[in-house]
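Question:
Write out your own:
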Amino acid sequence: MLKHHIFEYKEDFKLESGECLPGFNLNFTTYGTLNDRRDNVIWVCHALTANSDFTEWWPGLFGKGRLYDPSRYFVICANMLGGCYGSTGPLSINPKTGMPFFHDFPNLTNRDIVNAFDLLRQDLDIENVHTLVGGSLGGQHALEWVIKKPEIFNNLVVIASNAKHSPWGIAFNESQRQAIAMDLTWKLNTEKAGMNGMKVARSIALLSYRHYATYLATQEEENDDVKDNFKASSYQVYQGDKLAKRFNAFSYWTLSKAMDSHNLGRGRGGILKALQSIKAKALFVSITTDQLFPVSEQKFLADHVNDATFEIIDSSYGHDGFLIEAKQLTSAIANFYKENKLNPEIAR
């Protein structure tokens, strides 16, 4: 049974920027039961606009009869700091002013977000994580975390992610933030500020999440007489409207900035040295048509992490394939466990 919780951290939380948050909350979800040995923990790191309910956006991996069955595992996922699903973010009340942070919310890095996750882990008294799983931005968080706390994590599964956010990825994010900034409401301190700009930002993002083949298969017109109001056009509008119903421009801005900050080598003597410090058994998974996090980025990770496994999933869905191709992903992870003689059939 899914359970939802709130972790409250009441001390000042120092950020990489030198700024402080006056405490924070993390909204997190658990699924299953922690066994007596406390060694059946699966910790999930979610992607940019997702939430802590992993069964909602990754249903093919979690549930009865799935790879991560709650009868065997205790699964945890925390909504990241800066988001808008119960964890402290720009729309949260600043206890120093009694008003929402809005534009005054401090800049976050991925490392800040992971430091908050680790405070939750400590509060839960979890010292042994069977597998840390993350895709995209969540994969970046997972990598940061196994380097920060190498003794905690036994296995690492990273899908469609990288060691350092690329100039290509940063350019996409900056174009999205420019779209938000062009919205005349963005300078206002209201919950709906920048919302129309965020709709455009989502439309831009979707072009990096999907692939030419995806649009050709799903948005091609059925006849040659169409002159306007194309399916592909309405699809872009629909996706922007859909996100606007569940997200806000402040969190979108904050988390895209955090993604841009991703660099495992910062302050660690470079990326290669950081990757070589990973102790967990690692699986890196690529999507053949991923244009945002291309295969070369996961291959780089696998080449420089000790005794890592590398798998490629064939998909026409581009980067979003990491959310859609559950059957192939399940097979890749199950094979990883088998090849490394890891027993996924953990009992309570």
